Amino acid sequence: MTDLPKAVLSIIHGRKSVRSFKEGGKAVPKETLDEIIKAAFAAPSAMNLQPWHFIIIDNRSILDALADGLPYAKMLYGASAAIIVCADTKTSELAWELDCSAASQNILLSVEAFGFGAVWTALYPQKELVSFVKKLFHLPENIIPLNVIPIGYPKGEEAPKNKYAAQKVHINKW
Q1: Of the candidates 170, 141, 149, 147, which has an alpha carbon nearest to the alpha carbon of residue 86?
Q2: Predicted TM-score of the model (pTM)
Q3: Alpha carbon separation from 65 to 10, 75, 78, 160 (Å, rounded)
Q4: Phi, psi dihedral angles at 70 (to 5 degrees)
Q5: What's the pLDDT score for residue 159?
Q6: What domains are defined for the chain?
Q7: Which of 12, 67, 93, 151 is the most buried if burial means most Cβ atoms within 10 Å?
Q8: Helix then strand then coil, % of the chain, to nearest 5
Q9: For residue 95, what is the DSSP state?
Q10: pLDDT tier at 158 (50, 70, 90 boundaries)?
């Protein structure tokens, strides 16, 4: 195996959910956030409809307002940035959840590649969480926020979990 596949697999297998960030940490560089978003745009989507939209948040008061209203995203208080992955349901009514999930995975892998920490915090399908974010950001009716991904400098040394389960792998038959 050459170095590139090893590097890619190292990032995939090394990805972990980071829920504790160094508070008061320095900002995630704008150039890094731009590269992370470009990676999200590289995700596959059904019929190449690309229904995604991304809200990048690097403003402390907005991060705190999100944390105030989202019971499962309190780690936003320590995060340096966050990305809200949204879908335009007019663009894709049937597969937007899948498409935006693929984009979210690309975000999480990119964050890992840059040496930052992140975690997927779900909004959809919890109506009260979706409603809170829609109201806070004045989202149009056809825009649905799927998740919020807090990003920052990990507080500790997180270890990835080995999730491989051979009993769930089937070759040529169930």
Answers
A1: 147
A2: 0.95
A3: 35, 12, 12, 29
A4: -115, 105
A5: 85
A6: 15-155 (3.40.109.10)
A7: 151
A8: 40, 20, 40
A9: S
A10: confident
pLDDT confidence of residue 1:
62
**What span, in angstroms and rounded, lies between the C-alpha atoms of 122 and 101?**
11
DSSP secondary structure letters along 24-37:
TPPPPPHHHHHHHH
Handedness of CA 7, 52, 34, 79 (dihedral sign): negative
Per-residue pLDDT of 3-36, as tens digits, reads: 999 999 999 999 999 999 987 668 999 999 999 9
Indicate left, alpha or beta for 18 from its phi (over 0: left) and psi (-120 to 50: alpha): beta
Token pair recorded at residue 162: 């080995």
Distance CA 21, CA 27 (A): 12
Q: How far apart are CA 144 and CA 115, in angstroms?
A: 29
What is residue 26's predicted lDDT score, i.e. its pLDDT? 85
Q: 3-state DSSP call for residue 56?
A: strand
Provide the angle, in degrees to the nearest 10, between the axes of the packed helices 127-137 and 60-69.
150
Tokens read off for 3: 């170095």
- Is residue 15 within 8 A of residue 109, CB to CB? The reply is yes
pLDDT tops 80 at residue 98: yes
Place of tokens 């799927």: 146
Cα gap 22→127, rounded to integer Å? 31
